[in-house]
Amino acid sequence: MFRLISALLLLAAMSVSAFAQSIPAGSSWKNQRGSQMYVANTDINGNFSGTYINNAAGFQCQGTPYQLAGRAGGSHLTFVVVWKNFAADCHSKTVWRGRLIGTTTIQTHWVLTGPGIPTLRGADTFQRQP
Ligand code: BTN
What we know:
mainly beta; eight-stranded antiparallel barrel; binds biotin
């Protein structure tokens, strides 16, 4: 009985750990536009946070870090950047929704919104950086 309970506890701990590692704390990612995302923190509920540097041509708020907040559930994830920091306020925000493929690719669709600007939609693919 003791062994069974131990095995079940171990299994539960491994599942929580696998979930938490769906997007690892300390991981760096880059998309096809050259933008960089750093995931600094994760928790056991799938929440994560970090920074996002927008380097995409044709957009504002480039070249400095913005706060990023997200949530992962299994391989699916959603994250948000509000484009306001110490350097600039673009009065806009972007929501990315997508999935982790393997351990090194995140495929997303995003929506950029803000008062007085037309809503923009697109797709970003992020690759994990060494
Ligand atoms: C703005 O121009 O209002 C703020 C910057 C938006 C940058 C967008 S978010 C979606 C796309 N992917 C990127 O990495 N950058 C652009």
